[in-house]
Design brief:
Radius of gyration: 19 Å
Strand order of the largest sheet: 3-2-1-4-5-6-7
Number of strands: 7
Order of helices and strands: EHEHEHEHEHEHHHEH
Largest sheet: 7 strands, parallel
Length: 297
């Protein structure tokens, strides 16, 4: 059955690819992005052109996850038009590169605001509608770095993604009795095909960054180069979007809790399997096994 879906952070990268994959699968998809009438106007037109070319229902909606007002307005406009919302894809995020100490507390707070608190704003806007219908799906785009290999100079990003993943795990149990399903999509370190690395932020404290450069000269380039080396040449970030669309199309209660798409295999899958098994076993021990899958409705 065709679903009404909103994807946050869908101006480029995995978000844009996922919005297109979901639209090709026959769903009505809203690509959420900031500044639709400004700097992202070309992305709005690109989405419209894709919809025309492929005869799919892909639309753009103004959605800035750093603003509760924007999140409320975006979700309200979708619900007003269709009288429902079925799927929320939490994809919006930002990456930074540099020594952890060189980022100011304000930079950490801004990163968490986008990568973590932004999901809460969207949930606050969307979940009342999903709860009222006793149905729906939350899809969280996590990162293999949450539990896998963690090279240096990505600490703020890794910490934010880990926080978002932890929030997703807790939310899964808390919305299950409302019939709302949860799927966590875990991409690995794709070094091409997105603007994730090229558009990364950098530390504001350049003096501290320079001090680290004396001992860790060229480390950023070294990490990027080695990540590229261990990633298979045919690795395509579009497979993340395709797998996300496949999971969305699975029946409620039949979706995997966590799906890894990590060609470089940084070990995150192994650790996640243990963590998710312990979560499942613990909920059963405290007689809350019903929270492991969404209620029928």
């Amino acid at each position: 059955m065709s679903k009404i879906i909103v994807v946050t952070g869908a101006s480029s990268g995995i978000g844009a690819l996922s919005a297109r994959a979901l639209a090709r699968a026959g769903h009505t998809v809203y690509a959420g992005m900031r500044a639709t009438a400004g700097r992202n106007a070309p992305q709005v037109e690109a989405a419209a052109a894709f919809a025309r070319e492929h005869d799919v229902d892909l639309r753009s909606v103004e959605l800035d996850v750093s603003s509760q007002e924007s999140a409320d307005a975006a979700i309200a406009s979708i619900v007003d038009e269709h009288d429902r919302l079925d799927v929320v894809v939490h994809n919006a995020g930002h990456m930074v590169l540099g020594p952890a100490e060189a980022f100011t507390p304000e930079q950490y707070a801004q990163l968490y605001d986008t990568n973590v608190i932004g999901t809460q704003r969207v949930n606050r806007a969307a979940l009342p509608h999903l709860r009222a219908r006793r149905d729906g799906l939350l899809v969280w785009v996590s990162s293999s770095s949450v539990r896998g290999g963690t090279p240096p100079y990505l600490a703020p990003y890794f910490a934010a993604k880990a926080a978002m993943d932890s929030l997703a795990v807790s939310y899964a149990a808390e919305v299950a009795r409302f019939g709302i399903d949860t799927a966590i999509i875990v991409p690995g370190a794709f070094t091409s095909g997105t603007n994730h690395f090229p558009n990364s932020g950098h530390p504001a404290d350049t003096d501290v960054a320079a001090a680290y450069e004396e001992r860790y000269a060229g480390l950023t380039d070294h990490v990027a180069g080695k990540l590229a080396e261990i990633t298979p040449a045919d690795a395509d970030v579009a497979t993340v979007a395709e797998e996300l669309a496949r999971v969305v199309d699975l029946p409620k209660g039949g979706r995997p809790f966590r799906t890894h798409i990590d060609p470089s295999d940084d070990g995150g899958r192994l650790v996640a399997e243990v963590g998710d098994r312990i979560r499942s076993e613990f909920l059963r021990r405290i007689d809350l096994a019903d929270l492991l899958s969404p209620a029928a409705g």
